[in-house]
Amino acid sequence: MKPLALGSSLLAIVGSVVSLTLPATAINAAYFAKTTQVLYFPPVGGQQLILGEILLPPGQWIVNYSATAGNNGTNGIVRCYVRAKETGEIISIHAAALGTQLGGSITTTVGGVTLVNLNQPTTMVLTCTHDYTNGRPFIDSGAEIAAY
């Protein structure tokens, strides 16, 4: 009986806190792009691999992205980021160590979320790079970029 009473009390506390928060804002529009096949990085390190892009109208947007990178060779760094196509500005960037050696992972998901305020229509581009010139690193199908 005590766990139930504690659960009920906890529910009452959470309920009172939630009632003090502002109501959720409805999403008027959402933009989304997703890859449907495995994409291999260029053989030379540092070159960009464009995964997808979305054109956003002016306004405030939450941009979310993820890409699962893989590497069956020597360790290296994979970076995935969202950049504004028109200016080249990197909006959000994250990285992971990939490879079969100690400290690396054969696959990992690299992703992030950020808030942008746009004064004009802007194309958000999901891009990844790798730092090394060996192996055959790739991005698995299902890489996504979304804004809402």
Structure description:
The chain is mostly beta strands and 148 residues long. The chain is built from one helix and ten strands. It has one helix at residues 2-20; strands at 31-34, 39-40, 49-56, 59-70, 76-84, 90-98, 107-118, 122-130, 138-139, 144-147. Strands 1, 2, 4, 7, 9 and 10 form a six-stranded antiparallel beta sheet that branches. A four-stranded antiparallel beta sheet has the order 3-8-5-6, with no helix packed on it. A hairpin with a 5-residue loop joins β5 and β6. The longest helix is centred in the first third of the chain and has 19 residues, at 2-20. The protein is elongated, with a radius of gyration of 20 Å.
Write the layout of secondary structure elements.
Layout: H1 2-20, E1 31-34, E2 39-40, E3 49-56, E4 59-70, E5 76-84, E6 90-98, E7 107-118, E8 122-130, E9 138-139, E10 144-147
Antiparallel strand pairs: 1-10, 2-9, 3-8, 4-7, 4-9, 4-10, 5-6, 5-8
Key descriptive features of the protein:
148 residues, mainly beta, disordered N terminus
Structural class: mainly beta
Mean pLDDT: 82
Fraction of residues in helices? Answer: 10-25%
Q: What proportion strand?
A: over 45%
Q: Evaluate the radius of gyration.
A: 20 Å
How many β-strand runs?
A: 10
Number of helices: 1
Q: Could you say which overall geometry the principal axes of the C-alpha atoms support?
A: elongated
- Biggest sheet features: 6 strands, antiparallel
From N to C, what is the helix and strand string?
Answer: HEEEEEEEEEE
- Ranges where pLDDT stays below 50 over 5 or more residues in a row are 1-22
Distance between the termini: 44 Å
